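Entry 14. Ran structure prediction on the chain below.
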Amino acid sequence: MNENLNQVVLRPRFKIEINKKHSTVLEAFEAKKHNQSQFIVSRIDDHVFIKLPKAQQHFWSPQLHLEINEVNNNTSQLYGLFGPNPTVWTLFMFLHFVIAGLFIAFCVWAYSNYALKVDYHLQLWGIILMVILWFVLYFSGRISKTSNQSEMTNLYTFMSFVLDE
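Output, structure tokens:
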């Protein structure tokens, strides 16, 4: 688990083959949905979401999204994805796309001014600012992932506990 969290990815993923029936695995998580106070467990079809209770959540709290697929009658494939609340992730990615769009716009504007032999220092500062903002976003995501590693480990441990029952 920890090897996966040290990779460059901001939303760590994993895959586990389970020697249990697809429905048995889903029912195990469904049972924890009603009698577990440590985590909030919700299920939609073959997807299970495990997250912290509202009182313990903060802006970048991780949640664990599991997709459980049937391989055959006695085997299932579990795909796991750690990430923040989908709304937070959407905002984070939107900011990345805005910065990328502005970077391209500043590059085009700077090249146009360069080709016209007009001053383009303002555009270069804009390009530099977009690069700095991108690094700020990237490192804030990395810092958040590192600071939430214990919560991610707790989510993974809970998932393992449910699967081993």
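The helical segments are 2-5, 22-35, 86-115, 121-147, 149-164. Will compare against last week's run tomorrow.
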